Amino acid sequence: MPCERGRLFFELEGIFAGTHRPELVVRLVYVPGEGKRVFFNGAPLERLADLVGELPVVVLSPADQALTGGPPEERRRFLDNLLSQAYPAYLQDLLQYRRALRQRNELLARWRRHPAPCNPRCWSPGRKSWLRSAVV
Known about the structure:
Strand order of the largest sheet: 1-2-3-4
Order of helices and strands: EEEEHHHH
Distance between the termini: 64 Å
Low-confidence stretches: 127-136
Structural class: alpha+beta
Number of helices: 4
Radius of gyration: 27 Å
Number of strands: 4
């Protein structure tokens, strides 16, 4: 349905077609004073949230421009925050990773300031205690 200026309501319809599932039709109608109504394959839905998981869609708004057009650090931080909230174990793994990365960088910086010959035995499985004491 085309947009018409001066109308007091709007209606938006999307048809989602794919090769692995039947066609899905979603319709959103908004009327001032009545609010919005959502229809899924012709049937009214109680809540817009009932569509979650039905359609493989990601919604982005102009407010998300920093996420989509900004530096990769923004995207990583967003995903880290999202996954940390959804999976507490991810947060613990992320904290351990950041600690190990910080320790590695400090160790590399020390080696740059005070170069020492690399001894391959330092990295052998029998020398884990040395590695643990070097990376604290």
